[in-house]
Structure formats: C-alpha cells, structure tokens
Design brief:
By secondary structure, this protein is α+β, with helices and mostly antiparallel strands. It is globular. It starts with a strand and ends with a strand. α5 packs antiparallel against α6 and α6 crosses α9. It folds into 2 domains: 165 residues, no CATH class; 135 residues, Nucleotidyltransferase, domain 5 (2-Layer Sandwich), CATH 3.30.420. The strands form 4 sheets. The chain has a 7-stranded antiparallel sheet. A 6-stranded mixed sheet has the order 10-9-8-11-14-17, with helices on both faces.
C-alpha cells in the first residue's frame, strides 16, 4: 500500500535559484522530447518510444554539459512523464473521446520534478537531494514505511516535497452497527439520514472579498513588470489558502464519518454535468439572445465547486478502505422528490427546503433525500414507476 506525505521546504536564496534552474532544465528537456516526437511523425511517419529517447540522454549530456549537474534519474523521469502524456492521449482516443494533443509546457505550467527511485534522503529537519544539496524541511508528522519516490514542487511561491512511501496495510477499525445515507448539498454540506447535518464552510465565498481586492490590484499592474509578478503571487496565495482550507475540511469530515459508520451511502453524482453553463437561447425571428438563467446558474455553479464534493468523496473512499468500511453509490434520481416514509412522489422546486407529506412526514428536504439514499442501497425503498430503479453501484475505496 502506498501513502503520500507532503512537507514544506525552506530553501535559502542560493538553493531556490538552483531549484528553479533544475525545474527549467527539466522543462526544456520535456519540450525537446515532445518536439522530437512531433517532427519524427510529421516528416518520417515514425513514432519515437520512451526507451529511444532515454538512450539519447548520454549524448545530450555531451552536447549540453549543464545537464550533468542534474541527477540522471530525474532526467529519465521527465521523459517518462512525456510518455505517460502520450499514453493518456491515445487511451482517450480509443475510448472515443476527442482529447487535446500533448502541449508544450510554459514556465508557469511545469512546476515539479521527481526522484523516482533514489538520490534523496530525509532526516529530522533536512532533506538531502543528489546534485542539489541539503534543504531545510518542516516534518510535521512521522513518516512511515519505505520511501519510494520524492517529488519537489513549486506552488504559489512555496516549495514542497512529496514522498510516496510503501507502508503495511493498516489495522481495520472495530466493526460498527451504524449505516448512514448522505445527501451532499449547498445549504448544508451533508445531510445524514439520522437527521444530523455537517455545515458548509463556504471557504471560497468567504474569501471572495479579499480575492476581488487583490485581483483588482493585479489588473492595474503593467504586464511583465516586477509589481505585476508580485500581484500574481498575491492572487495565488489567496487561492492556495482556500484550497488548503477546503482540503483540511474534507479530511476532517471524512475521517469523522469513517470512524463512526460501517456503510456510507452516497449519490452517484456527475459534478461535471451539474456545473455546465446553460445553453444560450436565441429568438428565431429577431436573432436576439433571450434570458437563459445564466446568472443564477453561475452562482449555483460557484457554490457547487466551492463545496468540493469530488475531493470529499475521494477522501471518504480512501479512508474507508484503510479502515475496513464500505462506501456505496446509488442512482440519484428522485431521491429528493419521493417521501421517505410512504414512497409517494412529492414534487418540489429547488427553493422548497422542507418536505411535507400527507402521511404526516415532516422533515428537512435534504434529510428526506438522505433517508431515500440509504433505503435504495438496502433495497427497502421503492422508486416511482415512471423511473425504474437502477441497481445501486457499490464502489470500493479506490
């Protein structure tokens, strides 16, 4: 089993210059390898493999002496990264998709390099990298297992090290007798089938005022100037804080749920489809565009993206696998419209947040949906005849 650790690096000025220099040389090699593949296929109809490019590295080092100052396996991993880009490209084509061709990497897009096997070691407060030296690191938790790979990454003015370690399978948690259905939402981040709620933190919404201020400052700066670069970093810092807050919240919320419940059931949501922009409406006679609700939909899309459902679900699955729990997914159709008590359809608009039924069932709309989600998984709930129930999809942790 692999486990990843991410720690903050604190290089001095000379070390940071060396890190940026290494990053730029790796980017140059990536772009050169991509150019070689494109030209070989364009002019000779030939595909160049990773192993052919790998064999050319000693010759490249003879021509470009500066590449001798970079650990050999780091250069090999750059070409392996290019190979994976093409593998993913051709894989998506086979699936019938229309992917974009692997692109050249600009200096703001290529932000990491990797030691895939060796050439690195971690001590209590220092990380030693071959050809780069010893850099101060903040190890905020104990590293378990055997370190396999080491990735150095630059994010919004800060440097990080990511260690992938091979660890033993963790001991599963004691079995729990509680199962729960979860309805992901915006008003509440999650509504549980037992009537409990997890409040939505709305990190991006809270940071919008500050983000607007730094973005306005950025718009007034001249492109290419020193002040423009500083303003770009200020915007990146705000986004980085929101991202870290969202990830921290997802970790803590998923951990609490996994520790408490044996089976956790969610809707099989397609978030990418939920945040699509509405199609424009055009008058056939005049050709003028009509209101299509894009403004309201934009606000809804922003709230859905801010919630981070995908990140939360992924963390929930990973933690459940380590703890011996199960995460299941069911068809989301009619979970909000059906009464969880009697099974009668009660049509509601998005504005209606309370479920009221003639059978006497009175509860929050999202709690009603969570109960239906749990019943679907257990096979106890019936779905209206106009929508035949699809078999629930049980997902493993990964």
């Amino acid at each position: 089993m692999r486990k990843a650790y991410k720690f903050r690096l604190y290089p001095n000025k000379q070390q940071e210059e060396k890190l940026f220099w290494t990053l730029n040389r790796c980017r140059e090699l990536y772009n050169a390898g991509l150019q070689e593949r494109k030209e070989a296929y364009k002019y000779a109809g030939k595909s160049i493999s990773y192993y052919e490019q790998k064999r050319d590295l000693p010759e490249i080092k003879e021509i470009r002496r500066e590449y001798n100052d970079i650990y050999s396996q780091v250069l090999q991993d750059v070409l392996l990264r290019l190979k994976r880009a093409f593998d993913h490209f051709f894989g998506r084509i086979k699936e019938g998709q229309t992917p974009g061709y692997p692109r050249f990497q600009g200096r703001h897009r290529y932000d990491s390099f990797t030691y895939p096997q060796s050439g690195f070691s971690l001590e209590e407060k220092h990380l030693t990298l071959s050809k780069l030296g010893t850099i101060k690191v903040k190890v905020h938790r104990k590293v378990e297992g055997t370190m396999k790979t080491c990735t150095i990454k630059h994010e919004a003015g800060q440097w990080y090290v990511m260690l992938s370690c091979e660890v033993k399978e963790p001991e599963p948690l004691p079995p729990s007798v509680e199962d729960v259905g979860i309805d992901l939402g915006i008003t509440h981040f999650t509504a549980l089938s037992n009537g409990e709620f997890i409040a939505s933190p709305r990190h991006y919404r809270k940071a919008e005022k500050k983000l607007k201020k730094v973005q306005e400052a950025l718009s007034r700066k001249k492109r290419g100037s020193h002040r423009h670069k500083k303003a770009v970093q200020a915007v990146a810092r705000v986004h980085r804080k929101v991202r870290n807050q969202r990830r921290d919240f997802a970790h803590k919320a998923s951990r609490k749920l996994v520790n408490r419940y044996q089976t956790i059931v969610l809707e099989e949501l397609q978030t990418k489809n939920l945040v699509k922009r509405p199609k424009p409406k055009q008058d056939e006679e005049t050709g003028q565009y009509l209101p299509n609700g894009a403004s309201a939909k934009g606000g809804l899309n922003k709230s859905i993206s801010d919630a981070g459902w995908g990140m939360f679900t992924e963390m929930l699955c990973v933690k459940a696998a380590s703890a011996g729990r199960m995460v299941a997914f069911v068809d989301p159709k009619y979970t909000s419209q059906v009464c969880s008590n009697c099974g009668v359809v009660r049509q509601k608009t998005l504005d209606e947040r309370w479920h009221s039924c003639e059978c006497g069932c009175e509860l929050d709309r999202d709690t009603n949906a969570a109960k239906n989600i749990l019943k679907k998984h257990a096979g106890a709930g019936s779905v209206p005849q106009m929508n035949p129930r699809r078999e629930s999809v049980e997902a493993s942790a990964f």
